[in-house]
């Protein structure tokens, strides 16, 4: 049985038929949308575009949207959009130009046709039908499209296992950058939309008078305005290149070649090449070439060449969508294993070359120097310098224990390992009332069960001693934990952070005679695997700076709230918000609740762990119900059903109608309640969020409708 995660991620998975295990290829479905646009205002006013995928014929009908409008910058003309359909569906796409002066062009419907990549395994396809010819096309098919018991190794193209395997090495390979006058980006570049494979521009080679050989080097070099261009390589490196080509008219001598030219160490063409022959026609066709750098060569160029007849003089050859990539090939092996062709291990199973991924042993193995993140190559010295403590010997340690350990390891951090000190403070009473307080936070691990790996941030609530007045919340980033000693309790393993808190009030960082109104802190430690209990830290009476604060799960102020609460469990019953309520999306933009659709992703916190993450909306509907109104001291308003659940500090999930003035509500933007009152009856939106069961409404953590997922 394939899981939802497998279908969304795609890949190769193990499948069992009548007790026999075999690999199964799963492909994701998405639309590769590319567009051009004629600006109606001067180009310097263009701020970008928005694109929408919808059903029917009217892009202004928001109820027909399958994907909400996505905004792009002025230079972008492409969107790879997920479209999770289970049935054959007719779709349209439209693009609209946006301008800095607030103007918008009318929606322009994009054309397109559904095509299957020729290299793809033959499969039963759930097509996206009735998409007009033009710019919209599906590059990959249904996630359930391959269902055979086995997939032959030869049928799997490396270009589909790695999409793409490496960066395109051809400058302006798709011809869409306005690179006129630049080489090799602009060599033979013309703006002829009617002759372009896609977009508005392509490359054009005109047969010279008398015919003969003519060609173009795509990376700069022979027959280019930028001579000497080459891509460095070493013997054994493999490259894959392709181009789409056609002729303006039938050629008397239609033969052409796409060529990899191999160069020696001096940069001179050494007479060695790898080529693919193609017979040109007036329709675009794809020509591909693959080759391996021979011994003695250190560079490669990509070259296209024709040898036209005299009668072909003045005719043209067009080229577009040109790419060249260094190949990273994988072999499909028994038991769903992918490995590089150079993978090797020593006698102890330790990789010494290449990398391997399987589902029967260690999930991923890579030799030192075979893993790179950004510009940083993770080699053996890197791992040795950043070892975490796990097991009884240095050889058994890893950088993050994470959830790979047993028992309580990998769970929520232990708040007892946190210490707080005030190292400096100052308060003004004239000419303004203002204070700043400097606190140092120390996290000192004592045992491996403290769960202090993969820390994220420290959440600190500040309260002053007069009536336990709430003064603000700060989220203080915690650094990745680096281990410097084999003993957890060693001071070298301590994390130390300094933070300055400022407040428009006369506050003291210490507590003592004649020091006035002082501040105590309520803290939580957040990590990748959960959030600690909360604990109070208050200055010791008549102690000076640099002295550890007293710790307590109970408030140091009479009648104040207590720490140590574990959070709510989710509550019961349906809870809904007003349609105009702003909901936080994955990119932190806020949109009205009424505009949410299944498949959209929201930024929120998990109902139990309160771990911040991105989660998918799986249900959304509008109804009528009784409503209550909550007003916050900062002016925000939340209108929702009386049983709508919000997360109240120290109490967990609480119904809207049970809130009282002065209570603090949690969320990405916490707020204090000023007023709660009935609002009458009106429209409300029911939402269901998979995984988290929460969403952020007006910056406050809200629980979703309890509905099976």
Please, could you describe this protein's structure?
The chain contains 3 helices and 47 strands. By secondary structure, it is an all-beta fold. Mean pLDDT is 75; it is low at 1-15, 20-29, 112-165, 331-335, 379-409 and 559-573.
Average pLDDT confidence is: 75
Major sheet attributes: 6 strands, antiparallel
Classification by helices and strands: mainly beta
Strand content: 35-45%
Number of helices: 3
The geometry reads as: globular
Helix content: under 10%
The Rg value, from CA coordinates, equals: 32 Å
Our measurement of the CA-to-CA distance between the termini, rounded to an integer number of angstroms, reads 17 Å
Stretches where pLDDT falls below 50 for ≥5 residues? 1-15, 20-29, 112-165, 331-335, 379-409, 559-573
Number of strands: 47
Show the helix and strand layout.
Blueprint: H1 4-9, E1 11-17, E2 20-26, E3 30-34, E4 46-54, E5 65-72, E6 78-82, E7 92-99, E8 108-110, E9 136-140, H2 158-161, E10 189-191, E11 201-206, E12 212-217, E13 231-232, E14 238-247, E15 255-264, E16 269-279, E17 285-292, E18 297-308, E19 316-326, E20 330-333, E21 337-340, E22 344-345, E23 351-353, E24 355-357, E25 364-366, E26 371-373, E27 376-378, H3 380-385, E28 418-428, E29 434-443, E30 455-464, E31 469-477, E32 495-503, E33 519-527, E34 530-531, E35 535-538, E36 550-552, E37 582-584, E38 590-592, E39 601-605, E40 612-632, E41 637-640, E42 645-648, E43 652-655, E44 664-665, E45 671-689, E46 694-697, E47 700-703
Antiparallel strand pairs: 1-2, 3-6, 3-9, 4-5, 4-7, 7-8, 10-11, 11-19, 12-18, 13-18, 14-17, 14-19, 15-16, 15-18, 20-21, 21-24, 22-23, 24-25, 26-27, 28-29, 29-32, 30-31, 30-33, 33-34, 33-35, 35-36, 37-38, 39-40, 40-41, 40-45, 42-43, 44-45, 46-47
């Amino acid at each position: 049985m394939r899981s939802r995660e497998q279908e969304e991620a795609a890949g190769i998975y193990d499948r069992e038929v009548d007790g026999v295990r075999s690999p199964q290829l799963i492909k994701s479905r998405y639309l590769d949308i590319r567009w051009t646009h004629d600006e109606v205002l001067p180009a310097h006013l263009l701020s970008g575009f928005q694109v929408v995928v919808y059903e029917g014929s009217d892009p202004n009908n928001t109820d027909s949207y399958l994907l909400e409008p996505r905004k792009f910058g002025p230079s972008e003309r492409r969107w790879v959009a997920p479209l999770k359909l289970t049935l054959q569906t007719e779709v349209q796409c439209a693009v609209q130009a946006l301008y800095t002066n607030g103007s918008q062009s009318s929606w322009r419907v994009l054309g397109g046709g559904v095509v299957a990549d020729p290299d793809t395994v033959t499969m039963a396809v759930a097509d996206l039908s009735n998409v007009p010819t033009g710019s919209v096309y599906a590059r990959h098919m249904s996630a359930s499209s391959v269902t055979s018991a086995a997939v032959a190794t030869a049928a799997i193209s490396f270009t589909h296992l790695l999409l793409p395997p490496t960066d395109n090495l051809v400058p302006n390979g798709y011809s869409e950058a306005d690179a006129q006058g630049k080489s090799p980006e602009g060599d033979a570049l013309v703006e002829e939309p009617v002759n372009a494979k896609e977009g508005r521009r392509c490359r054009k080679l005109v047969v010279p008078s008398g015919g003969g050989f003519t060609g173009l080097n795509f990376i700069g070099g022979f027959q280019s305005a930028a001579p000497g261009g080459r891509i460095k390589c070493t013997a054994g490196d493999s490259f894959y290149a392709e181009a789409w080509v056609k002729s303006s008219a039938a050629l008397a001598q239609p033969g052409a070649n796409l060529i990899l030219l191999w160069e020696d160490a001096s940069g001179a063409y050494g007479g060695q090449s790898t080529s693919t022959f193609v017979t040109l026609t007036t329709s675009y066709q794809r020509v591909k070439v693959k080759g391996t750098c021979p011994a003695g060569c250190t560079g490669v160029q990509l070259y296209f060449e024709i040898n036209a007849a005299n009668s072909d003089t003045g005719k043209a050859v067009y080229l577009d969508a040109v790419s060249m990539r260094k190949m990273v090939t994988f072999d499909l092996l028994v038991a769903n294993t992918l490995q590089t062709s150079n993978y090797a291990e020593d006698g102890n199973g330790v990789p010494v070359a290449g990398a391997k991924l399987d589902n029967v042993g260690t999930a991923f193995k890579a030799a030192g120097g075979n893993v790179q993140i950004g510009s940083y190559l993770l080699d053996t010295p890197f791992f040795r310098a950043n070892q975490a403590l796990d097991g009884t010997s240095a050889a058994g340690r890893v950088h993050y224990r994470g959830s790979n350990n047993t028992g309580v390891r990998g769970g929520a951090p232990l708040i007892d390992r946190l210490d707080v000190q005030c190292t400096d403070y100052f308060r003004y009473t004239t000419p303004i009332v203002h204070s700043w307080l400097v606190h140092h936070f120390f996290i000192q691990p004592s045992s491996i069960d403290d769960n202090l790996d993969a820390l994220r941030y420290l959440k600190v609530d500040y309260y002053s001693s007069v009536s336990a007045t709430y003064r603000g919340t700060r989220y203080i980033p915690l650094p990745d934990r680096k281990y410097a000693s084999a003993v957890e309790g060693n001071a070298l393993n301590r994390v130390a952070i300094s933070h300055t808190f400022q407040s428009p009030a006369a506050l003291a960082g210490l507590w003592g005679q004649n020091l006035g109104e002082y501040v105590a802190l309520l803290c939580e430690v957040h990590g990748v695997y959960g959030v600690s209990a909360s604990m109070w830290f208050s200055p010791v009476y008549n102690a000076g700076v640099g002295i550890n604060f007293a710790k307590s799960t109970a408030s140091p102020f009479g009648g104040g709230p207590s720490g140590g609460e574990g959070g709510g469990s989710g509550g019961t019953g349906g809870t809904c918000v007003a349609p105009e309520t702003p909901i936080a999306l994955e990119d932190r933009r806020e949109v009205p609740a009424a505009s949410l659709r299944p498949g959209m992703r929201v930024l929120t916190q998990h109902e139990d762990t309160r771990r911040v993450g991105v989660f998918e909306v799986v249900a959304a509907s509008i109804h009528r119900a009784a409503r209550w109104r909550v007003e916050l001291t900062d002016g925000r308003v939340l209108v929702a059903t009386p049983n709508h659940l919000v997360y109240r500090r120290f109490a967990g999930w609480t119904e809207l109608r049970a809130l009282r003035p002065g209570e603090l509500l949690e969320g990405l933007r916490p707020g204090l309640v000023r007023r709660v009152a009935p609002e009458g009856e009106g429209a409300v939106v029911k939402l269901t969020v998979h995984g988290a069961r929460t969403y952020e409404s007006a910056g406050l953590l809200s629980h979703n409708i309890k509905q099976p997922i």
